[in-house]
Amino acid sequence: MKIAFIGLGNMGGGMAANLVKAGHQVRAFDLAEEALARAKANGCETFSTVQEAVQGVDAVVSMLPNGGIVDAVYGKDVIGHAPAGALFLDCSTIDVATARSVGEAAIAAGYAAVDAPVSGGIAAANAGTLTFMVGGTDAAFAKAEPILAAMGKAVIHAGDLGAGQAAKVCNNMLLGIHMIGTCEAFAMAQKLGLDPQKFYDIASVSSGQCWSMTSYCPVPGVGPQSPSDNDYQGGFASALMLKDLKLAMEAAETAGSKVPMGQRAKELYEGFVAASNGGLDFSAIIKTL
Ligand code: NAD
Predict the structure, then answer these.
(1) Ligand 1 pocket: which of 8, 11, 69, 93 to mutate (most atoms <8 Å of CB)?
(2) At 282, which CATH number?
(3) Angle at which helices 260-272 and 163-191 pack, to 10 degrees?
(4) What is the mean pLDDT of residues 66-82?
(5) How far is the CA of 11 from the centre of ligand 1 (A)?
(6) What's the gap in Å between 155 CA and the centre of ligand 1?
(7) What distance in Å separates the CA atoms of residue 134 and residue 157, rounded to the nearest whole number?
(8) Same domain, 96 and 120
(9) pLDDT digits (tens, 9 = 90+) for 103-123
(10) pTM for the predicted model, two decimal places
(11) What percentage of the chain carries pLDDT values higher than 90?
(12) Which CATH number goes with the domain that contains 32?
């Protein structure tokens, strides 16, 4: 298949390379020269504008920083320039409302479109082990699935357009909340004189168990290897967790949903990021407790 790939950053770079490995012809565009050079080295054909990259393609995949950029790129340079009938797959994490409006504009112009945000970070993008949560019609999902499967370990149809982003913000709001809860529990256990390893041995097989504890423990040397063992470098940046919590709060407001814990998690990450910790893994918030 001929696929245009727009946004070859930390995530998109590895994803585009995996499409090449799966035998697709990838036509790549990014504003950054460095990202384009890496894509070329990984077997993509590179272009200096989006409009050139989308010529003659069957599908367009994008992995961009935010909804404003996704809206501008599709509105100005993809819709009306890609061949009629092409499938658009936006894998960026953006707000539900923009995901719906961009997808609807594409469909009205004769294209197929899905929102397909991912769970999993840079390592999963490089390894082709992302999880995709997909919003769109059954027909669009059927077309999107084999393309996404080349970049991930799971491709799940979440519902109609926007449902992928809805699943993503709800999941990441829960992640932010249980990471902070896990950090609080370990910090308090230690203050109460409990050894962190002993607390882990008990809580990891008790009712307090959660992913932040057993797969991503915020205490160095406890649980499986995680960013806490590497001085909180790598992993999922606190700035990106804050971005997702802000999107979750926007979605909650639009939907009229009460999210007091999500709101508090957003405030705590806001303070943490404002104190120059945005580049640290999100489990580093334990340092503030
Ligand atoms: P990044 O900043 O590394 O990459 C974004 C790329 O988009 C950059 O190379 C940038 O030059 C390019 N870009 C910006 N504007 C552009 C435009 N108008 N046209 C073409 N290219 C443009 O970010 P990332 O970490 O790769 O994240 C991408 C998306 O994936 C975000 O929406 C993010 O929330 C989401 N995400 C990231 C992670 C993660 O761990 N990094 C995990 C899950 C989801």
Answers:
(1) 11
(2) 1.10.1040.10
(3) 70
(4) 98
(5) 6
(6) 20
(7) 5
(8) yes
(9) 999 999 999 999 999 998 888
(10) 0.94
(11) 98
(12) 3.40.50.720
